[in-house]
Amino acid sequence: MNLPAPHALIAEDEPLLAAALQYELAQAWPELQVVATVGDGLSAVREALALRPEVLFFDIRMPGQSGLDAAAELVDAWPDGQPFPALVFLTAYDQYAVQAFEAQAVDYLLKPLQAGRLQKTVARVRALLAARSGAAPLPETTLAQLRSLLGAGLAPATGAAPTGGPLRFIQAGHGSRIDMVPVDEVLVFEAADKYVRVLTASREHLIRTPLRELLAQLDTQQFWQIHRGTLVRASAITSAVRSDSGKLTLQLHGRPEAFAVSRLYAAQFKAM
Amino acid sequence: MDTDTATKAAPAPKIDWIDKLRYLLQTLAFSLAIAAIQYAIRPERPYEFPLVYSLAIGSLTWACIDFGRHLFPSRSATGWPAGWAGVALPACGMVLGYLGGTALADAWFGFSSWEASGRAQLRVSVVITLVAGLAVTYFFYTRGKAAYLQVHVAQAQRDATETRLKLLEAQLEPHMMFNTLANLRVLIATDPPRAQAMLDHLIAYLRATLGGARSTLHPLQDEFARLADYLEIMAVRMGPRLAFTLDLPDALRAVPVPPLLLQPLVENAIRHGLEPQVAGGQIDVRASTRPGPAGSLLVLEVVDSGVGLGAAPAHDTDRPGSHFGLTQVRERLATLYSAQGTLELIAGEAHGTCARVTFPLNSSTP
């Protein structure tokens, strides 16, 4: 084969399973070099950026950061012009992963690993790498699947979410007082540590409800996700500006600051 | 469908006309029985007399009470007005039914019960109305209550079944099962003796989980053996990220304890304490005693060096069964030892969590 030997990174928190995957890969794809094996999501992002492998095997459930979150972070941090690695998810049991990967541009593997199934994955990844041996940009299908995975993770998991219908008011505590903030006045929801910042044109509130829980109760036509941690009111967007380095930022009507758009969600902003 | 009644009593529940017809027929049956008794006592009078009076008074009394109760806010389950209205309603119903029914029957026969000739009969019919009215009202009331209780018993049974299912689901979580099997699959090829040992632990764990005999007690050493099974499985899976100790003093080995009481606490320590922590950590399970107000208390502790109570905000809530385990332990302690059984969660100094279960050592409670 005229391609250079491909490199792979394995992120799997159970040592025996990581070793087994490495062993099975050595059988199914002898040229592939596993350059690193890590056990958590944070190391996965760090090592992937440092080593730039062509193939990533990410376990979905890992300490520190899930495989899905790690992949989303990696998409943003990945340098422009470099082809994004072929991404394969590993999971013991995730009903939503099975649904979301039906298109199969990136693959998923169910644990316990079956050698025959792994061979199919290897064939698929090799075909993908061969097809884009030049410097191809990040394929939109990968982004779309990652978006749907990140979205799919929240709907069935939070038991309370879909019951109350669309959210009308945000109850924000200020000391002993609770402010009722109409959702219609909110311009931005932004995750910050354990809190979510709720920005209106004139004020800022902090609430404890996680962003993913809020997302399930908000009208996605009204609030667009522009980053893993940011929702903005679509009707308040005045412009999207692309910087020289390719980063996209939004200006909102009524807020002075700019809001960064993740590469994962940048496809929404294209000139007509 | 019944717009006229609906507008009259807005908050009252919808009237079920099939039910109403059934009650009316039952009332008529009672009235016929009363008329028959009266006829048996005084066979010299025509049967038509007691029949008409009984039917008129009975059905009118029924109508006043049964339709009247829709005018009051009622306890939704029994369908009977709460408080004073529940007593006043049958009283008023009986007075109105008696007066109105007598007037109707009088009109039928064309004379007045209130004249001198009918006075003796009047006393008798007052007593009959009172006794029969009370009896019939009581009959309907208890029937409503019985139906209400039946619904509640069924609900309680459903709740209990659901709790058992949720418990099983939490313990046989697919992630746990498939990851364990994946590890076993690797060990079978690479290290058969270790695979066998892990399989034995898995078998013991499954037997305990699926056994379901949670109401009887077993010795504390059995409880510790089940925890050891689970922790051994997790130690294979997590490798160097999990270390654990089990500390059971010899004197406490035979103490009877509820089976699998500590299991959810150990699972929580791993899932919410160690799993989110990149470096993993240590779990210590220990048993001790301490003096209590009424005899010695058994103290069982599950201590982990994980991320602690304050951390892992969203992480905690989006997995099934995360708060369920603690609730379940609390409920079992409350059922078995009432206020003497407690579960405390104590945050560690730097990080980590201690779950402490305390209950009487020499309790004869089942």
From TrEMBL, chain A:
<feature type="domain" description="HTH LytTR-type">
    <location>
        <begin position="175"/>
        <end position="272"/>
    </location>
</feature>
<dbReference type="GO" id="GO:0032993">
    <property type="term" value="C:protein-DNA complex"/>
</dbReference>
<dbReference type="Pfam" id="PF04397">
    <property type="entry name" value="LytTR"/>
</dbReference>
<protein>
    <submittedName>
        <fullName>DNA-binding response regulator</fullName>
    </submittedName>
</protein>
<dbReference type="InterPro" id="IPR007492">
    <property type="entry name" value="LytTR_DNA-bd_dom"/>
</dbReference>
<dbReference type="GO" id="GO:0006355">
    <property type="term" value="P:regulation of DNA-templated transcription"/>
</dbReference>
<keyword id="KW-0597">Phosphoprotein</keyword>
<dbReference type="Pfam" id="PF00072">
    <property type="entry name" value="Response_reg"/>
</dbReference>
<feature type="domain" description="Response regulatory">
    <location>
        <begin position="7"/>
        <end position="126"/>
    </location>
</feature>
<dbReference type="GO" id="GO:0005829">
    <property type="term" value="C:cytosol"/>
</dbReference>
<feature type="modified residue" description="4-aspartylphosphate">
    <location>
        <position position="59"/>
    </location>
</feature>
<dbReference type="InterPro" id="IPR039420">
    <property type="entry name" value="WalR-like"/>
</dbReference>
<dbReference type="InterPro" id="IPR011006">
    <property type="entry name" value="CheY-like_superfamily"/>
</dbReference>
<dbReference type="InterPro" id="IPR001789">
    <property type="entry name" value="Sig_transdc_resp-reg_receiver"/>
</dbReference>
<dbReference type="GO" id="GO:0000976">
    <property type="term" value="F:transcription cis-regulatory region binding"/>
</dbReference>
<dbReference type="GO" id="GO:0000156">
    <property type="term" value="F:phosphorelay response regulator activity"/>
</dbReference>
<keyword id="KW-0238">DNA-binding</keyword>
